[in-house]
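Hi, here's the filled form for the chain we discussed.

Project: internal
Contact: R.S.
Residues: 268
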Amino acid sequence: MTDIDTELYPKAESRHGMASGAFKTAKRALRDERISGLTGALLAMFIWGHLLAESSIIFGKDAYNYVANFLEYTVPVAKPVLFVITILFFVHFVWASRKIPGKLRERKRMLELGESLQKSRKGWNQDPKSDIKLRKHFETSLWITQVRTGMIVLVTGGFHLILITWNLFSDMGFGFLGFDYHPHPILNYDLTSARMTSGLWILYAVLMLSVVAHMAIGVYRLLVKWFADTWFVRNYAKAFFYLLFSFYTVWGTITIIAASGAWKGVLS
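And the returned structure, exactly as it came back:
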């Protein structure tokens, strides 16, 4: 449909034209989706590497200190990466939070929906007092879980970023700039072990489980959103989701146990 210019409708425009409000709204929505998706994908890849690097504590003190020293001084990427990840973390939250219900009534409705989906069976579960039929729906359940874990990650992950930033940038040695050399990394085994044994393992266990679930769901939804109708079918995305969630949950749990002092380097 082209623009119309008549006596009855002077300078009338198509509701679907590039100058229409609907087109501009859709364009903004696509931009927001790309920003939240790109930042989420970058954060997911960081989590993959970060959890694997942290798991070096399983192999003992020397292995953990070697990895820390390598990232802080040999290849000084710890501080630049921390800076970039902090920015990505909050940018992702701002753009992704637009999908979170803003009103209290809508949030309560979302909680009720989540509880109803959990109680529903594989078949239709009809409440005699309600005209709404509910059935377990994989994508809807994942979305609700992603919203909940996202709020947990915002609080616990924000605390973790502040704590690590304080450690890295409050050190008076500037070895990463070449002014000095430190044979011992800042985020070393002793510091990590002392924190975990003091009770912070509970916070990091919650953070690990939440961030793994949030990451795995986010990757699944990205694959379905952008690739499910092409070569990457939905079943492959679902299999990749279960693989990511299972592997990093198990590996992260072992890492938390090792860091909390339950054993001293199982494989050392």
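Let me know if anything looks off before we file it.
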